[in-house]
């Protein structure tokens, strides 16, 4: 069998996919905010045993319009948006400084679901980046303290040495923080929920908001308040 044939023989979704979970004939009754539907779907993903449902693809573009995408993990969802963290000095950090437009894509295969969050990413103020860094496991803090992310590396030994040194530092000082570590909030302009089904095609629901109405980013991504809501428009899309 050729590689091409093997690709075509692969099933994308398992049988027995769930329904959308929202009455798509009555959008007024759908959750008022995309955050509310996202957290409901996230709980479904956890209950279904989806692996790493908090992992998402972050897409960014540089000043010249060249697009870059990579996986990272979601840190919180609040009324302000979807939170993620990384080095400001990394390529993603440079992209977001030059062009804050970004997108997060979640794929929950076992449920036949995809969520796309598109908007503008802004660095959270105050202690948010440092607080996120300190909350990471020891090995992740050591890796973060190494720095130089995405720069060319001379040899594996060079990294092993730098990592071992930083691991000692992380153990000796649990409060040590990589100075470039940053928490960003992706303030959503559009959030789209996509559901496959066994026998009814696909369904798509999009929330759209005016970015001008979103509030200030709080200093730490700890409060998950769904009460301050934008005036969201809900609409169905042709699959
Ligand atoms: C499952 C998974 C989770 C990851 N989580 C993060 C994260 O939370 N923050 C981060 O900066 N990089 C994370 N990474 C690494 C990124 O994918 C990427 O390699 C790194 O951030 C450099 O990206 P850049 O060169 O585009 O800036 C993760 C990778 C994987 C596979």
Automatic annotation (TrEMBL):
Residues 207-232 are annotated as: Disordered. Residues 43-156 form the Pyridoxamine 5'-phosphate oxidase N-terminal domain. Residues 209-228 have a biased composition (Low complexity). The keyword Metal-binding does not apply. Residues 181-239 form the Pyridoxine 5'-phosphate oxidase dimerisation C-terminal domain. It comes from the Bacteria. Its cofactor is FMN. Keywords: Flavoprotein, FMN, Oxidoreductase. Belongs to the pyridoxamine 5'-phosphate oxidase family. This is Pyridoxamine 5'-phosphate oxidase. It comes from Isoptericola cucumis. The gene is pdxH.
